[in-house]
Amino acid sequence: NTPVDLAFVIDGSASVGPLQFEKSKKFVRDMVDGFNIGAAQTRVGVVQFAWMVQAEFNLGDYLDGTDLRNAIARIRYMDGPGTEIGKALVFTKRRLFSELYGARPETQDVPRIVILITDGRSSPESQLHTAGVVVYAVGVGEAVDEAELETAASDSSKVYHVRDFDSL
């Protein structure tokens, strides 16, 4: 029941494919079901990335669990070239974890958590965790660079690797 500002950063690159992308969305929905969603509880935002990055919705946009699950279901697969993890993490820090877009002030000591889901390699990552954000990295498939996941994550205990999207 601890309040959390939770951001999912989802790989929407062409290498993922539409079927696997739907499995990523299901993983996000399943994770969200484990939290109490609300203004004073957990707030959830989603970022999708490939060569470009976009906010699907911000932390303050959906403060009801049903509305949030429906918003996740409506996310459309980007199907873009590239896998810009670094850009996505910087964007997440600047956009989703901004009070302007629904994040709580750092003075409230609400944990800020990122769950990154990707299947590939990228440009160098930002050290988002140095800004007080805990980053979990979930690598999917064989093309994942384990060292890169460890760089993106807050520490090596926050790195997870699964064989395929069915294993999420």
Automatic annotation (TrEMBL):
Keywords per UniProt: Glycoprotein, Repeat, Secreted, Signal
Residue ranges of domain VWFA in the record: 5-168
Keyword Repeat on entry: yes
Places the protein is found: Secreted
The keyword Signal is assigned to this record: yes
Pfam families named in the record: VWA
SUPFAM superfamilies documented for this protein: vWA-like
Main localization, broad class: secreted
Annotated InterPro entries: ECM_Assembly_Org (IPR050525), VWF_A (IPR002035), vWFA_dom_sf (IPR036465)
Recorded GO CC terms: extracellular region
PANTHER family according to UniProt: COLLAGEN ALPHA, COLLAGEN ALPHA-1(VI) CHAIN-LIKE
Name this protein carries in UniProt: VWFA domain-containing protein
Organism the protein comes from: Branchiostoma floridae (Florida lancelet)
